[in-house]
Amino acid sequence: MFGYKHLISLLPLLATSSAFVIPSNSGLSRRCVSAISSYDEVDSAVSSGCDIELGAITVPSGKALDLSGLGDGATVTVTGDVTFEGGVEWEGPMFIIDGSDITFNGGGHTFDGQGATYWDGQGSNGGKTKPKMMKLKMGGSFSDLTVLNAPVHVFSVGNKAPLLITGVTIDNKAGFELNEDGDELSHNSDCFDVSATDTTIDGNTCWSTDDCLALNKGQGIVFSNNICQGTHGISIGSIKSDAVVSNVKITGNTVDGADNGLRIKTIAGATRGSVSDVTYSNNKITNALKYGVVIQQDYENGSSTGEPTNGIEISNIVFDTGNTVETASDAKFGVYVLCGDGSCTGNWDWSGLTVSGAENSISGDPPITGFTA
């Protein structure tokens, strides 16, 4: 039998080992734990199949903190702040995590992307090649982390099994500063780019110069109780050819000072895709700078053509209760809808939407009920 005295005799060895296994007959947890105290220990810790304790480390510029080979059911606990050295031009991602039934607990610590070493006001549209920061392919839960100064796109979410993201703060406020050309330093810094199924993003805070949510494709998506400061708002799209979005709930969010509050946009000329069964409830939009609610089918190269196309069907878009939208006094429109010929269909009950500030513009015969422009 493995005795108490035997266990005590092993403690000095365990204290100096980065990975150890607690014996199965000790009466304690059967999972092993691998501690990471330097970047060089990452690969061996991940391949061990153990739970991970991620300490305060520095990730070399141009390298990824790659946790993509975690064992099923593994827990990652962050015990120190992680700094990603900047400067090297590459595409990223700077961090990647994959696995089944993973629990990631950031412990309130910070991942610092050193975005200021890349920002040039052009984002992913030109200038320096900037690495995307966080790629989540895992199923399970991801919580309690601050992501500071991402160079470009913050979270790319492509989970293969149900995933909850909660308690995350994305802080790109330093990127709001203007450069000598009058452009915000940080650009294309979407907080959550989602192409996934069964994803819940709840109770997070986003400070960004781009979309708070950019939902590109997927189904079973819940975006709830989040705070979006600055940003371009909560967006479905841009929807490209063959992309399908369905069964989406956007509820209880606060969006302040965004270019757009709530938006659905499809690419002009795109075909065979669809957006369906989207429900908005209890969202509060304040000081929307351009549009409060915008649904457009004329999006091309970052702007509007003014000529909507009908290759993407948008159906069953519902504002069911408690949605309030207030625009800035000089905003373009409170509600702006531009549908293609016959491509906005189904149930568009907007009785749960209240808009104040700018005037509204609705065209293309969307079947809106319960709301008068």
UniProtKB/TrEMBL annotation:
SMART domains: PbH1 (SM00710). Pfam families: Glyco_hydro_28. One of its GO terms (biological process) is pectin catabolic process. GO terms for cellular component: extracellular region. GO terms for molecular function: polygalacturonase activity. The keyword Repeat applies. Residues 1-19 form the signal peptide. It catalyses: (1,4-alpha-D-galacturonosyl)n+m + H2O = (1,4-alpha-D-galacturonosyl)n + (1,4-alpha-D-galacturonosyl)m. Keywords: Cell wall biogenesis/degradation, Disulfide bond, Glycosidase, Hydrolase, Repeat, Signal. Its EC number is 3.2.1.15. It comes from the Eukaryota. Belongs to the glycosyl hydrolase 28 family. This is endo-polygalacturonase.
